[in-house]
Amino acid sequence: MDNKRNLWSRVWPPALVLGILLACWQAAVSFALVKDWMIPSPVNVVKAAFASNVWPRLMEHTGATLGLTAIGFAGGTAAGFVLAALLHLLPGVRRGIYPLLILSQNVPIIILGPIMTMLFGYGLLPKALLVMLVCFFPVCIAMLGGLTGTDESLRNYMRMIGSGKWTLFWRLELPSALQSLFSGLKIAASYSVLSATFAEMLSPKMGLGGYMVLSTRGYMPERAFASAILIIMISLTLFGLIALLERAVIRWRPGKGETGRHVGS
Amino acid sequence: MLEVKKVSKSFADARGVKEVLRELSLQVAEGEFVSIVGPSGSGKTTLFGVIGGLQQPTAGEVHIGGQDTTGETGHVAYMPQQASLLPWRTVAGNIELSLTIAGVEKRKARSEALVWLERVGLAEYAGAYPHVLSGGMQQRVSFLRALLSPQRLMLLDEPFGALDALTREHMQKWLLSIWEQNRRSVLLVTHSIEEALYLSDRIIVLSASPAVILDEMIVPFERPRKEELREDARFMELRNRIYRHLAEGAKEAGGDGN
């Protein structure tokens, strides 16, 4: 009950601000402060989106974007997870690769888009590869950091009582890396939508990114705005799902105001 | 039970070779409680690392239960200074995991954990995560975990070092009451002379590094031990004897021991 009120008190201030912004936007267009063929009013965007000749197509493109995002996100994060585990279990290989992984953080991987298109054409493959690459790095690095950051005294204890490499990995290192893994997954979640839409813009046939490009070229700002809103909604939903999953998986975490572990009596 | 035979250990670093243990030999008999007291930096942690098999000694051998276990882990039940409970496992789950790693069947480990948590009055915390427990309670769980482990030798590494004085005395009494019903071979490392005298059958005094045995004494008090023991004249005498060793050791080491 208190929790509910708490939630409400956190939700209404930003909701109010958002409402005011939307009202200002609507007013600016209604009173012709901006031309509505440049920036459409929110009401017109919603109207256009639900028009019978737009909505089905919009949904079709949403489906395509969702599919691409899902394939890329799943493939990229799985690869990142597996490589992190491998590198952790093979310290020799890790020494060679880890610095390069860190360095790769500074490479805007999205720039590989046109190259991928050049190599693999305009199908699903180059787009999916791009999204996978973008999702791969943050997950791999976060996971490796988590695995290495395992509490040394816990590691000592587990080894002393006879845990082998595998027991150590499954029972200690992997669970203690979960928190970092989820930060990586959250970054990957928003990157995946970003890179999926970007990939679709490169060959604008299917997907919201492509639809957006075609709509702007055809001077149909309402449709462009509608696809933008859908993209934002996909991004927020994916992020929210990961956050929910995190809460479901990591239940042992001390709550706020409680003390951490290993404190005095 | 445990035999440490002429174990030496040195570490090499950029500034040269540092000898931490020099030809150290000691035994713990079946069901015996032995304490090691020494100034900080006397290589007690290294000694435990060698006995537990985490570190290979430079020379010498470790035998546990008549078997050469030098450099092999998994032969000791261990209670470290920090409770070292896995934060994502419940209290009962932590005990269960350590027992299964040591080869106990899962169902048996589970029921054993629950029975003993009940017996020591921690039943209500069986399903709780460790972070809700106080430091003293965490150490009780950690001790229980070591006690229930099937390995025949228990290593206690300054188990109460991080607790305040009062909790510490409570814990000593508690540990003793359980240990006296269920005698296991124990090797305890401690800073506290009184703790060693109160708990053990025998005390080994180590010098500052390289660690050699300065003195060894039988603690003559019968069991079960009483709290009043601490005021016994023989208790005082033994305490002073150990204290003098440590003070001399500290002087020789340039006064930086404590």
TrEMBL record, chain A:
Chain ranges passing through the membrane? 66-90, 97-122, 128-147, 168-194, 224-245
An annotated GO cellular component of this protein is: plasma membrane
Name the CDD domains for this protein. TM_PBP2
The protein's matches in Gene3D superfamilies, at most eight in alphabetical order, are given as: MetI-like
Supply the Pfam families for this chain.
Answer: BPD_transp_1 (PF00528)
**Record PROSITE patterns:** ABC_TM1, PROKAR_LIPOPROTEIN
Q: Which domain of life is it from?
A: Bacteria
- State the UniProt keywords alphabetically: Cell membrane, Membrane, Transmembrane, Transmembrane helix, Transport
The record's comment on protein family reads: Belongs to the binding-protein-dependent transport system permease family.
Q: What is this protein called?
A: ABC transporter permease
UniProtKB/TrEMBL annotation, chain B:
Which PROSITE patterns does the record cross-reference, listed alphabetically? Answer: ABC_TRANSPORTER_1, ABC_TRANSPORTER_2
A UniProt-annotated Pfam family: ABC_tran
Looking up InterPro entries in the UniProt record yields:
AAA+_ATPase (IPR003593), ABC_transporter-like_ATP-bd (IPR003439), ABC_transporter-like_CS (IPR017871), ABC_transporter_ATP-bind (IPR050166), P-loop_NTPase (IPR027417)
Cited Gene3D superfamilies: P-loop containing nucleotide triphosphate hydrolases
Q: Which UniProt keywords apply?
A: ATP-binding, Nucleotide-binding, Transport
SUPFAM superfamilies to which the protein is assigned, alphabetical: P-loop containing nucleoside triphosphate hydrolases
Q: Which residues form the ABC transporter domain?
A: 2-233
User: What molecular function terms (GO) are annotated for this protein?
Assistant: ATP binding; ATP hydrolysis activity
- Name of the protein: ABC transporter ATP-binding protein
Q: Give the organism, scientific name.
A: Paenibacillus paeoniae
The taxonomy runs: Bacteria, Bacillati, Bacillota, Bacilli, Bacillales
